[in-house]
Amino acid sequence: MTLGTRRRHRPPPWMTLVLTACLILAAKPARGSISVPLTSPAQDAPGVLVSVDWLAEHLQDPSMVLLHVGMPTARSSGGFIPGARFLNYQEIVEVRDGLIVEAPPIDELIGPFEVAGVSDETLVVLYGSPAHLPARAYVTLDYLGHGARTAVLDGGLEAWRAADHPVEASPTRGPRGQFTPIVRDDVLVSAEWIEERLYGPGIALIDSRPEGEYTGRIPTRIGGRAGHIPGARHLYWEDLLVAPQNPVLRSLSDVQAQFQEAGADYGAIVVNYCYVGMRASYTYLIAKHLGYDTRLYDGSWNEWSKNDSLPAVTGS
Fold first, then answer.
1. What is the C-alpha R_g of the chain?
2. What is each CA distance from 187 to 38, 88, 298, in whole angstroms?
3. 23 inside domain
4. Position 15 in a domain
5. Of residues 57 and 201, more confidently modeled
6. Is 135 domain-assigned?
7. Residues in Cβ contact with 70 at an 8 Å cutoff, skipping those fewer than 6 apart
8. What's the pLDDT at 262?
9. Domain span at residue 282?
10. What is the three-state SS of 214-233?
11. Any idea what DSSP says for residue 31?
12. pLDDT, tens only, 67-86
């Protein structure tokens, strides 16, 4: 052997057999385990709101499901973004204990979204008119644990048409999805939850109704008392839009100022309510867009006003 060289030793045959056996055992799953194939990670939404330009660029994305959220009559409206499937709004809400627009039981919510093509890995983009309809669908998917993979088209079909993009006469049909919800307990709150925190510093109550309903000047439509929850501040949901006919969100600075004027502090939980939980779904959506820790009081004033044991105030 010359200086500076080193003889390479081969392992004995018995060691080769041991190493081979170890590799085989390591590759073989233990008894009772399930070998799960590798899949691509779920695609998160680019934000709570997406623009018309973003949607036009991603319209052919096979991992995305575009949902037109509307009342049953909207199915024959003749105006759909190409590739959009239809989600019947009435199938994701119910009447319960005299309260309308309540979230149905979990097992009843899964079906409509699966029929519309929603799966665990799906990126969902919602639109519809009025703007609080897709917002309510967003709240529901957020509640079901799919919020990080759900977005709403800012401006909806109106903005799509204003940008001269094509529309189709009917919605698209497609395969059923497979959706496994992971229910979150930090999306919907009850009257009891609010009452326990009513006079504390930890929440900012946002009343999304028109000013007259908030102050009590306009009587409650279906029984109950007039007024609002003590400590709630007024922020009418349509004031966040450029106009009802142009339902694009106003400038970020304008929207932030409206929430701050309504007492929304980033250190507090922003709790949104209206009369039945429809309009407040939009303020919930925008509060999420602004980065607030936010909730929806689903029973809203419809429930609170009928319970005489809960306090209510009138005036501004």
1. 26
2. 31, 22, 10
3. no
4. no
5. 57
6. yes
7. 77, 86, 87, 88, 89, 128, 129, 133
8. 97
9. 188-304
10. HHCCCCCCCCCCCCECCCCE
11. T
12. 999 998 888 888 999 999 99
